[in-house]
Amino acid sequence: MDLNKVVEDYDASFFPIDFRIFTYRNNPKSTINIEVKDNQGDMKTLVLNIDSGKVEGEYQERSDIYEEGPYFFYTTLDQYAEDKGYVVGRLIESSLPFKEAGKVVDTNINLFEEYPEIEKKITEGDWALIPQEEYVTPEEWFDKVLHWMAPKGEDKLTIYGIDTKGQISDTPFTTYAEYEAWVQKQRSEGKINETN
User: Fold this and answer.
1) CB burial string 138-153: b at 16+ within 10 A, e below
2) Residue 40: left if φ>0, alpha if ψ -120 to 50, beta else—which one?
3) Contact between 70 and 145 (Cβ < 8 Å)
4) Burial bucket for residue 12 (CB in 10 Å: 0-12, 13-18, 19+)
5) Helices 138-148 + 176-188 axis angle, to 10
6) Residue 45 class from Cβ within 10 Å (0-12 exposed, 13-18 middle, 19+ buried)?
7) Which domain of life is it from (predicted)?
8) Dist CA 90 CA 28 (whole Å)
9) Looking at the DSSP assignment, which residues form a beta bridge with residue 162?
10) I want to staple 91 with a disulfide (CB 3.0 to 4.6 A). Which of 6, 31, 100, 130 is the partner?
11) What is the pLDDT of residue 66?
């Protein structure tokens, strides 16, 4: 497929400068995001449907995409993941400093029980598991992360909130709504530093 021709057919004033290929589980659509630029320096991202060979339009972010989280660094999950060798937030990936220190990433998590084919790609390679933000809500991501990061065979990881003073909440978060309510309460009381 000639990306120059595909972009020209959609809008002849732009030309491709970079592209990213995405594959998604449970989504039959295969797309490529093409970064394009015109002679005035204006840039945008086009979405190319590989199956049809046609540009579907400009890439559009959902308005609710992870604006307020879940970021997990206000929770005990952050340290738990770090101790196992992971960085968890808007993605799941192995921690480079953890691996550089000669430590072995703990693979006893549900994610690799369910998807063993990605274990080495994430733990030994440079892959990251990134949700398809157009189709996964912050609540769904929160629930998936708690399930996937739990030890193999456990349903869900139990996590607690941590404020800027290092105080751990007494009540665990079992839902995204509980997490969000706690974060909003901490913000309103000035207990969360946004640069935490």
Assistant:
1) beebbbbbbbbbbeee
2) alpha
3) yes
4) exposed
5) 110
6) middle
7) Bacteria
8) 23
9) 168
10) 130
11) 46
Tell me the two tokens of residue 106. Answer: 């703990």
Task: Give dist(CA 34, CA 121) in Å, integer.
Answer: 24
Q: How far apart are CA 107 and CA 55, in angstroms?
A: 39
d(CA 30, CA 44): 20
Concatenated DSSP letters for 39-52? TT--EEEEEEETTT
pLDDT band at 65; cut points 50, 70, 90? very low
Q: Is 132 exposed, middle or buried (0-12, 13-18, 19+ CB in 10 A)?
A: middle
Q: Look up tokens 């594959």; give the residue.
A: 23
pTM above 0.70, yes or no: no
Instruction: Give CA–CA dist 79/42, Å, rounded.
Output: 41
**DSSP H stretches of helix in the chain:** 3-10, 76-84, 96-100, 110-114, 119-123, 138-148, 176-188
